[in-house]
Structures are given as C-alpha cells and as structure tokens.
Design goal:
Helix content is about 70%, strand content about 5%. It is built from 14 helices and four strands. The chain has a four-stranded mixed β-sheet with strand order 3-2-1-4, with helices on both faces. It is elongated. The two termini are about 75 Å apart.
Length: about 350
C-alpha cells in the first residue's frame, strides 16, 4: 500500500489522525472542554487541610477549650430567654467562624490555585446548558463501556490500595502507643490521636497527589485524543477561516478588473503616453500646484499597452516613443508613484516638448 493511497484512504474515511488546530482547541475551551483532573484538586485540598491543622492546631485547640470553659464559667447562671439565647448563638457562631477561618481560607485558596494551574482562567456556562444527548441511554452505555470508564475503575482500585497501605503502615508504626492508650491521661490520648491522624492524613494526601499527577497526564492525553481532527476537518476549517479558494480567486479577479477599469479612466487625464512602442505604455501626469514630481497614473504591457494608446488617441493625448524610458518607468515604478529621481531629466525633456506642442508653458 503506497503512502499516497493511505493518505487518500484516511481522507476518504474521515479518520481522526491529526492533532487539533489552535482554533479547534480554542473552540473546545470555550465550550468548557478542557483537560482537568478532579483527583488533583481533591488531593491538593486534602493536603492543604491537614497542613493547616498542623500549623494552626494550637490556635484551634485554644478556641475549642475556650468555648467549652465559657459555658461552665459564664453561662450557667444566665437567664434562659429568647434574647439571651439568640445572643449566645450569635457569639458562638462568630467564635466558630474564627475557629474554622484558617482551614476554610487555606482550602479555598488551594482549590483556586490548582484549578488555575490546570486550565487557567475559564468562565463559561456551556456545560450547564440542557442537552438531551446527556440522557441518551445508548450513549450512556457506550460511556460505561469506554476506555475512560475502565481507567477510572482501575484508578479507584489503585487509590484504595494506596490508602489501605498507608493506613496499615501508619498504625503498625504506632502500635506501641496504641497498646498503651489505657495508661495515658485524657490529654495524652488526645495528643497521640491527633498526631497519628495528622500524620496519616498528610501521607494519604501526598500519595493521592502523586496519583493525581499521573491522572492529570492521562486526562491531557485523553483530551488531546478526543479533539483530534481528520484531514478533511482541517481543510473545512481552513476554508471556513480563509474562504473557499474558488470564491477568493473570483474576488481577486474582479478586484483586478476594477483596478484596471479605474486605471483606464485615468488615462484621459494624462499629459503624455510614453511607449516602447509596442510592448510598453506608461501614462504620465504632472500638476505643479499639487505634485512635487510627475506621477505614473497608468501603465501596461502588450495588450494593455495597446489599449492605453487607443484611449489616448481617442482623447487627444500625445503619445511619444522612447524605448529605454518607457521600459525603465514600467519596471521601476508602480501606478500612483512619482517617477524615480534619476529619470527626472529625461521626463522633463519629454514634458517640455509636449507642452511646446500644446502651446503651454509650465
């Protein structure tokens, strides 16, 4: 099978073998379809929560003790009325917010940072739109039996294995402390339990982050695969962005005709037509009040040169034969340009002769 045959076969079958174009990536991003791992966000939030508890454990413990002691020291003799009860709940509510503020702030900031690192700033309501395709049972069954579902299943199993191993290893290392809990004071039991819990939580969070990083790499691969394009898709996108080549060709042809038509309309305004005599024709115009130097208002070669001379003849424009000057003007200047500086002398002589024939003095 030749390479050309394989390419033609891919084009005909619409097989999606090409990487997505920047426009396709941008369009899918606007729809909210981005590579994102929920595992990474969850693991990072879990780690930030346990680290926050480690750093602010003393602060949280002092507030908890203060809340409990306040009841026994200041509230036992309080009259139970509606106003007092509302005031009590209000004060305790503020204390609970202060108690949990470091934890909430740490978790919220970490969630924002991780999501921004994965997908950047993205605000779209496309995923919230009602789509009946989401409740299609056939499509739902395909999703259940898809490769993504299999990968999610094995990921869940691996997550359970990691957590189980970390719990077992942590409790095994703390077996001596567990066996002597009955001999500890309540404060010692609390400290031991807090240390084991925090240590276990940090280990689990770190293990899940490692797994989540691998999951993020897999999600990026799956996303890139899901938005692949066929060769025909790329061609269609190019046509949509740039326009159909046939239509663009017709537009350019019409623009050329309109430009030629405008050029021919300028020929009757010329002072002189300099010719080759058959291959080139250049129309010059000079107005001392508005121009610093003579300008080329029309030029042509072969058939176009013949047409310029015909229009000049119809409108009484003088035609002069000067082969080197006509060729030089045609090749070195465009329509609307002033003549090159080194041709001033030659053009001035021609214009002087023309004005003399017309009885003008400029």
């Amino acid at each position: 099978m030749t390479l050309k045959y394989r390419l033609d076969l891919q084009l005909f079958s619409g097989e999606k073998t090409e990487k997505a174009t920047p426009k396709k990536k941008q369009d899918t991003r606007k729809k909210g379809q981005v590579a994102k791992s929920m595992e990474l966000s969850g693991a990072a939030v879990l780690l930030s929560a346990f680290l926050c508890l480690m750093f602010f454990g003393g602060y949280i413990g002092d507030h908890v003790v203060r809340l409990f002691t306040d009841i026994y020291l200041n509230r036992l003799s309080m009259d139970v009325t509606a106003d007092n009860t509302i005031m009590l709940f209000g004060e305790y509510g503020i204390q609970l917010l202060l108690l949990l503020a470091p934890l909430f702030i740490a978790v919220f900031v970490m969630a924002l940072v991780i999501n921004y690192m994965q997908v950047g700033f993205l605000l779209t309501g496309e995923p919230l739109k009602m789509k009946f395709s989401k409740i299609d049972p056939i499509k739902g069954f395909k999703n259940i039996a898809s490769m993504r579902s299999v990968a999610e299943f094995f990921k869940s199993i691996l997550k359970l294995v990691i957590i189980g191993y970390l719990v077992y290893s942590t409790l095994w290392d703390a077996r001596e402390g567990l066996s002597s809990l009955a001999l500890m004071s309540p404060e010692g039991i609390f400290d031991f339990t807090a240390d084991v819990t925090l240590s276990l939580g940090v280990k689990i969070a770190v293990g899940l982050i490692v797994l989540a990083i691998l999951d993020f790499i897999f999600q990026k691969y799956q996303h890139a695969k899901s938005i692949r394009m066929s060769k025909q898709d790329i061609k269609d996108e190019y046509k949509k962005m740039e326009g159909d080549p046939l239509i663009k060709g017709k537009i350019r042809e019409r623009q050329r005709r309109m430009a030629l038509q405008r050029m021919m309309q300028e020929v009757p305004k010329a002072d002189v037509i300099i010719t080759n005599p058959t291959h080139f024709a250049v129309a010059l115009k000079y107005d001392g009040a508005s121009m610093d130097a003579p300008q080329i208002i029309a030029k042509g070669q072969d058939y176009m040169a013949l047409r310029i001379k015909e229009i000049a003849k119809e409108n009484g424009i003088i035609t002069m034969e000067n082969k080197p000057l006509a060729r030089a003007l045609y090749q070195r200047a465009e329509i609307g340009d002033s003549i090159p500086g080194d041709l001033f002398q030659a053009v001035a002589e021609v214009l002087a002769y023309v004005y003399k024939l017309k009885g003008k003095v400029k």
